[in-house]
Amino acid sequence: MVNAGPPLIVLEGIRRRYGGMGGQPEVEVLHGIDLTIHAGEFVAIVGQSGSGKSTLMHLLGCLDRASAGSYHFAGHDVAELDSDALAWLRREAFGFVFQGYHLIATESASENVQVPALYAGLPEAQRAERAAALLARLGLGDKLDLRPNQLSGGQQQRVSIARALMNGGRIILADEPTGALDSRSGEQVMGLLRELADAGHTIILITHDHQVAAQARRVVEIRDGSILSDSAGAVPMVAGDTTPDATGVNGVNRANGATNGGGTAGALPSLQLDPVQARHAAARTLWNELGESARTAWRGMRLNRVRTGLTLLGIVIGVVSVIVMLAIGEGARRQVLERMGAMGTAMLYMSSMPPQTGGPNGDLTEADLQAVRELPEMRYVLPVIGDPTTVRHGRVDKQVYVFASGEEMPAVHHWSVAQGRFYTEAEDRALAPLVVLGHKASRHFFPDVPSPLGRQLLIGASPFEVIGVMAERGADSGVQDYDDMVFIPYRAGRARVYQAQTQPDYVVMQAVSADKVYEAEAAIRKLLVARHGREDFGIGNAAARIQAEMQTRRSMSVMLGLIAAVSLVVGGIGVMNVMLMTVKERTREIGIRVATGARQRDILRQFMTEAVMVTLVGGAAGVACGLLVGAVLILAGVPVVFSISAMLGAFACAVATGLVFGYMPARTAARLDPVVALTGE
Ligand code: ADP
Ligand code: MG
């Protein structure tokens, strides 16, 4: 008896060759197979081990492509289908049952059964319900949450049958389903297949065991890649029209709206999505897909805690170093700016120099300074002589920087007197031997007295009277510690301490405002060149100094940033490494997912999600740790300035790193040949 209607599967002259590349000899495993199978048939393909049965089944199930010949499925030439259409076929038309069960080891029985529906886009609740119903029907109702390694072989095989039925399983491809089972479990499985056949499913059973094969309604014998015999016609065939739904499995199908009830086993004439599937596809939103990928990714991360932890560490270190280094760089920059800003950007510095045209050093005389002082652009002109000099009080004796300058010194340096007073211009003119102490110098020479005012200090060989103590200034970015100095009037200094000095070491000047600095500089230059007849002096300004300083700080920041970026990249390479390993470890799982209908982009998305998830978690942890490290640094007195943009940037970089370095392994996974993935370790 022959089925009415067009055949479901038509193979013509199918050949499959392996090798032939890289010098390996080409082997032909299938030598021109012609085979026609109608919907609702129960066919056994029997043959010895190595005869090419699995190869044939992989071709039938669209996991592999033939080297030659044609395969028409429901009237469509399979060679013309793209990978998505093939995935659709595997998902909606076929259900695979393998000798080695091929369950995903990390997922529970119920989750394994749900995998095909996942890729079909069935909503989660319905998925779980249907999986539970199928497993219950197959006698595993109490094993939903057990992992494959907690189940016996027979139970695992029943789980894989449930999985094959999840999306309807109109065509069940079973490759030695009883091969790994004891005889009793084997009989159970065969019983199930028979029931499914009775219910109208098309069953293609592969076995090396003639006794097992005999239970099918048609037996095709294959030897060395060729069909030896085919009992087609000899065995009565069931069209699946009147058979009662013996298994109840199809009751489940019907309950869920699938269309392959017992009476409509042949109802897959076209590749159109039927309304149920169309609904599933619509329900399959990006959000659901991402949620599902994230769930799987999270499980993967949990299962490989140590490895995940190490990868995370790489990312965290990268992010922390970016954040902290940038914060330190910015902190240092702001500090310099502040310190220099406190001194004022209207500051100018001048000292005599040998002229560039040659000749002796110039001399900045009192008269020169007076002339400069009278320029309208100038506010202060402060000649300074300063050198380490021996200062003594009683038996205490120390080399101290003695700073001889005008009475405007506190104003110029934005500094105040804490105790007593500063000397006046009149006292300066009168060569008065007065001294004002820096905070530290005061403590050094007068540790025990409440007030050093009125006491005498011997500076060089001359006695000076203490009239004041400066406020504490704190560490400066400059070379000298101002708190450790003593301050004397300029003229008295020249007369009593620095007798050899004919002119100031340098002159500190302040323009009337910061925007007049360059005008002031030009005016001074013009004036002094007129007076000296040549340019025998140098003028610098604070703005330029600040800029130079900022430049160095900035290059430091850039360098720190680079170092940090490098560590981030190293973290990214760590992600890539782990992902590549994961792909290797999970080729089998990828094969299973592909065999149950995952498209390339499903696999790609899953692995990308895992990579991004690692970096998301790592990035977030990195930002948190960065803040913590920063807080510790602040407590330790290191100036750090956090920037939100640096944090966001580092976080974004981490995630981008995950995307970039995760892509390659994910693509590798997506492009795995399903047969290689399934059979590979
Ligand atoms: P069966 O399932 O009947 O035991 P297979 O279809 O697995 O046989 O294999 C048939 C033949 O094809 C064997 O000789 C095997 O060595 C060969 N074969 C299978 N896969 C490959 C491959 N990827 N590369 C080379 N030879 C292969
Ligand atoms: Mg085999």
From TrEMBL:
It comes from Diaphorobacter ruginosibacter. Keywords: Antibiotic resistance, ATP-binding, Cell inner membrane, Cell membrane, Membrane, Nucleotide-binding, Translocase, Transmembrane, Transmembrane helix, Transport. This is Pyoverdine export ATP-binding/permease protein PvdT. It is found in: Cell inner membrane. GO terms for biological process: response to antibiotic. Gene3D superfamilies: P-loop containing nucleotide triphosphate hydrolases (3.40.50.300). One of its GO terms (molecular function) is ATP binding. InterPro entries: AAA+_ATPase, ABC3_permease_C, ABC_transporter-like_ATP-bd, ABC_transporter-like_CS, MacB-like_ATP-bd, MacB_PCD, Macrolide_Exporter_MacB, P-loop_NTPase.
